[in-house]
Specification:
- Helix content is 38%, strand content 15%.
- It has 307 residues and is an alpha/beta fold.
- The protein has two domains: 137 residues, 3-Layer(aba) Sandwich (Rossmann fold); 148 residues, 3-Layer(aba) Sandwich (Rossmann fold).
- The longest helix is centred in the last third of the chain and has 20 residues.
- The two termini are 18 Å apart.
Length: 307
């Protein structure tokens, strides 16, 4: 694979490029199962995790992935409130360049922040989430998890439920799944559905009970109250009543269907606790696959070598 320097989003990836990430990630699953789950593929490389938004799972996942590849990891976290637009990020870019790191994993509240950084650095840049734009490694690890259960992504029917308007995860999944030929639908209150989303090739529904039995994969999105204005739905209680994954709704799903959630979950809102912990749920598999997928991404973009 001759990759682009950076991974900014899935939107511009080809199907072949998507499958190259997924295939390599499948190989790293075997590495993670070893008694000593470390390979020297990125020995001597330095990766900076630059998180301007709060994160637990994603930052830890990238750090573990880099260390499993024997890279050195430097972590930086800063509250969003102290980061102001392009000038501050430009200063950050210049400082990074001076430190001579090999790669940067960035999360930022501003859409386009990863692209901005990538255009100004010789180091490779991986987008770990930029505003409501994209979260490409989450989309890829979700596709990896789906493929483990269904093998052929082209035949999949995937339903995404919830706050699509504010979800970078939804966008990355839509771009990736549509690129490989899967059927994708969204279901949410009209106030949480972006205008003209049908132009991305997705089906749009408002009544979850009428359609939940038609899909192989049902993905619930977190209700992102921190990114929403007010009045987008009457109450959390009413949202759960109409769109929450309850035990009663799950009983209408296909026998071999799976339930996904990018996390963190609001238990009792978009997904009930007994559903999140049920046999249909693959949420912990998504977390496990996240390390392997991010190992693949870092390996590819850092020019890793198998010794």
């Amino acid at each position: 694979m001759n990759p682009k320097k950076d991974l900014i989003g899935i939107e511009r990836l080809t199907a072949d490029e998507i499958y190259q990430y997924l295939d390599l990630a499948d190989n790293f699953i075997e590495v993670l199962a070893r008694p000593i789950p470390i390979v020297p593929a990125l020995r001597g490389k330095t990766v900076l995790t630059l998180f301007f938004e709060a994160s637990t799972r994603t930052q830890i996942s990238f750090s573990i992935a880099a260390k499993r590849l024997s890279a050195d990891v430097v972590s930086f976290s800063q509250a969003t409130s102290s980061v102001k637009k392009g000038e501050t990020l430009l200063d950050t870019a210049r400082n990074i360049e001076a430190m001579k790191v090999d790669g940067v994993v960035i999360r930022h509240s501003a859409p386009g922040a990863a692209l901005f950084l990538g255009q100004r650095l010789d180091a490779f840049v991986i987008n770990a989430g930029d505003g409501t734009h994209e979260h490409p490694t989450q989309g890829l690890l979700d596709m990896m998890t789906m493929r483990q259960h269904f093998r052929d992504l082209k035949k999949l029917k995937v339903l995404i439920i919830g706050d699509v308007t504010h979800s970078r995860v939804a966008r990355s999944n839509i771009f990736g799944l549509r690129t490989v030929g899967a059927r994708v639908a969204i279901c949410a209150p009209p106030t949480l559905i972006p205008l003209e989303i049908e132009n991305l090739g997705v089906e749009v529904y408002n009544n979850l009970d009428e359609i939940i039995g038609d899909f192989d994969v049902v993905m619930a999105l977190r209700i992102q109250l921190e990114r929403q204005g007010t009045g987008l739905f009457p109450s959390v209680r009413e949202y759960r009543a109409c769109y929450g994954l309850t035990k009663e709704r799950v009983m209408r799903m296909k026998a071999k269907s799976i339930i996904m959630h990018p996390g963190p979950t609001n238990r009792g809102v978009e997904i009930d606790p007994d559903v999140a912990d049920s046999k249909k749920s693959v949420i912990l598999e998504q977390v496990k696959n996240g390390v392997a997928l991010r190992m693949a991404v870092l390996f590819i973009h850092a020019g890793g070598k198998i010794e």
